[in-house]
Amino acid sequence: DVAVRAWEYRLAGILGDVPVLLLDTDVDGNAAEDRRLTRRLYDVDGRGRLAQEAVLGIGGVRILRALGHTSIARYHMNEGHAALLALELLAHAQGGAHGARDFEALRKSCVFTTHTPVPAGHDRFDYASVAGLLGETVDLDVLRMLGGPDELSMTLLGLNVSGYVNGVAKRHGEVSRGMFPDHVIHAITNGIHPATWAAPAFARLFDRHVPEWRADAFALRSAFRIPRDDLRAAHAEAKRGLLDRVERTTGVRLDPAALTIGFARRATPYKRADLVLRDPDRLRAIAKARGPLQLVFAGKAHPRDEGGKQLIQKILRLGARLRGSVPVVYLPEHDMDLARCLVAGVDLWLNTPRKPLEASGTSGMKAALNGVPSLSVLDGWWLEGHIEGVTGWSIGSREPVEGDDAQEAEELYKKLEHEILPRFRGPPDSWADVMRSAIALNGSYFNTQRMVQQYIAEAYAPVSAL
């Protein structure tokens, strides 16, 4: 037996408080190994990972029930991590782990969102481990039927017990249907929370010119009316904040007049953080011909992702080669506070994932909210948010096929040299118009208000009609 307690946080929202429950096994009476289960998000041990998912799925349902939440209409699973909740719901409905089961009622209760095409994001466990860890808590015959006959796929379990399934962008929905052709998979594109991600300077800007933006994110479409001088002033303040932070952290003082390019996300090979540095000499020549540019990187690697760790080292080596011509800095300890500074303080947001592995991506949405356009591979959300030269610029084709590194690097360099830098150095109003478009077209749409409304209309309310 493992005791689980919950810590409740109440987050203040526009329409009231939102309770968030965090599960904790560091409880007196638990074995030492069980007390450690909730100390790290990603446990490096397979047994520990399965135990975490049992705590989340089974323990999560029991915690809710113990707190008096006995009439929950819908359980929404993000990825398969919580999919064991299905077995707890079945067992509770029938008074025991091996009673008669109403699978149709279960499907009406469950919604499942898959978040990545990358295999590492789909947890699998052998049934010997499942039996050894969970024992009679679960019915292995039912688990094999729902989660796969040879090994437990948490994604397959989530798919099979849910009446509504979705990917997190339109393209990701297409890719997921190819991965799981026996399932109906919809798409609801991710969004970001504007009040969280608007830099202080932009929050004040919106308060003056779009006062209803916190309660009605759609109102940001009127950002086209924000005076360009006010927009430039807000961005200059955000950029000063970033450059000051870079100097405090690294000792490097970046040029406030240089085109500052940001790249910050989890360090892993398929995200290709090094693509922009593929040809250092070319980058140096572009800066010499078109004016100064500089790059700011951030992002941690998963403890087990050796390729991600090597990628960070590669960026540091290539950055050293560019010293004196194109400054390159890599900021440590990437967290939400640093991310807020980055997405608002750079001039251009860069994203270069290997297609079609970017399920959605949200960093570019955060940048757009702060008037920062993207230069990005056409994958994930950018397929929906991209209007060439209006909200940003594209790299590669719209087809969901893996691009060639050399070709995409060449296109990246051409866009920088012939379109982006000339516009950045050109009439100030021209660049300000791109900033306004990023806010009005992308910031007003790729937000959690629209996203949650879609979930309510498409995923939650209709499931009961199945």
Key features?
4-stranded parallel beta sheet; 45% helix; 19 helices
Structure description:
With 466 residues, the protein is α/β, with parallel strands linked by helices. The chain has 19 helices and 14 strands. It has helices at 32-35, 46-66, 85-93, 103-109, 127-134, 140-147, 154-160, 170-179, 194-197, 200-209, 228-250, 280-290, 306-321, 336-345, 363-369, 382-385, 405-425, 428-443, 448-460, and strands spanning 5-13, 16-24, 75-78, 110-113, 124-125, 152-153, 164-167, 186-187, 259-264, 293-298, 328-331, 348-351, 374-377, 392-395. A six-stranded parallel β-sheet has the order 11-10-9-12-13-14, sandwiched between helices. Strands 3-4-7-8 form a four-stranded parallel β-sheet. Strands 1-2 form a two-stranded antiparallel sheet. Helix 2 packs across helix 3 (85-93), helix 11 crosses helix 18 (428-443) and helix 15 (363-369) crosses helix 18 (428-443). The protein is globular, with a radius of gyration of 24 Å. The model has no long low-confidence stretch (mean pLDDT 94).
The value of Rg in angstroms is 24 Å
Shape: globular
Mean pLDDT across the residues is 94
Largest sheet: 6 strands, parallel
- Helical region count? 19
DSSP E strands, number? 14
Contiguous runs where pLDDT drops below 50 for at least 5 residues? none
Tell me the β content.
5-15%
Q: Label the structural class.
A: alpha/beta
> What percent of the residues sit in helical stretches (DSSP H or I)?
40-55%
Give the strand order, joined by hyphens, for the main sheet: 11-10-9-12-13-14
Task: Note the gap between the termini.
Answer: 37 Å
